[in-house]
Amino acid sequence: MQVEGCKHELEITVPVEDIQRETDRVIADLQKKVRLPGFRPGKAPANIIRTRFAGQVRQDVIDNLIPKALTRRIEEEHLTVVSRPNITELHFDQGEPLRFKAEFEVAPEIELNEYRGIPVTYREPQVTDDDVARRVEDIRDSKAEFVNIDPRPVESGDYAVISLESLAGLAEPVRQDEMTIHVGDPDTMPAFNDALTGMNPGDEKEIEIVYPEDYGQRKLAGKTVRFRMALKVLRRKELPELNDEFARDVGDYQNLEELREAARKGLHREREQEAQGEAKDQIVEKLVDGHQFPVPHVYVERQVDAQLEQQARRLAGAGIDPRKLNVDWDKMRGSQKEKAERDVRATLLLDRIAEREAINPTQEEMDREVQRIARQEREPVAAVRKRLQENGTLTRIATGIRTDKTLSFLFEHARKEAPQG
Fold first, then answer.
1. DSSP assignment, residue 278?
2. Whole-prediction pTM value?
3. What pLDDT was estimated at residue 268?
4. What is the DSSP letter of 318?
5. What CATH number belongs to 2-105?
6. DSSP states of 2-41
């Protein structure tokens, strides 16, 4: 009996004869195990076992019969149970049938609307010669060398190597023996530019830095810190000459033109992935908006857990202990539920479409991913595959590949419209 949404309730009765058979079996098992004075092992009479261990017999019969009866009814009604059943209104009296109710959630039945031809905003990515030139220049910049220069006053454009030690403003002092600052660069804090300009190697001074509230390092964000700064050495950046030899040094290219062509293809691939990713997000949003069906509460709660765990990992990665934050976690859970429900709905829809279109990962795709992980972890492929199989990661990899292929299928069949304006 459907109660509400995905909630389901069954009223189950176990006949007296089934109870008797199970009771006899439980008593027979106890006869083999118990030791009673005056009887050889396994020879204690059944009626004594029944009387002496009445409470245990009753509980064992209940524990054995309920899951059997419940499983049988679930199979008869072809239900897909997704939550742990809650057993209520249990009635079990001598000489009467066993009666109980089981409440649980089932997977929703999803009736798919049209999912081919979903309209999305999409423009094929373009790569200009200027884009390529900037990418090659970035590669050139990454191969630059820093050369010490003769002592002189610091000028804008210099790379100053300094030591820095906090004197006040922080609970835990900061000390850095060697730190490079690009003087005059827009990303360098103005206070450092001003303090360094005109200094000579060997000079020291005290400076006060006011860090903005949104500064990347949390321990410095919003703080006013006094430092002792010493200028150790000045350096200049020397860029390699942009020629065929440079291209050969960078990678498997015969000349500079090949490097430029590889940069063009790389940029196009990156922009294509980004543009397609945005289009696929639109498709998912429209799919969710166009399908209304109940979502199991247990799925939503599981998704909320995953979202909160992901946020906690991000905080930990930034050096923040989530347990020390003054956060109302119940309120936080509540605020996550709407997004969690949409995410679950999207997952169920993509699974249903993949099922209808017979979209599945191939063995080659699975092997390729396992080999990638093995290379990354520098372990034998067979050992990695065995571990991924045992810890369930292989199943998650298969699910991920299936989802990606389904999204690509939907994108290929979408109606792509150019952005307005």
1. H
2. 0.76
3. 97
4. T
5. 3.30.70.1050
6. EEETTEEEEEEEE-HHHHHHHHHHHHHHHHHH---TTS-T
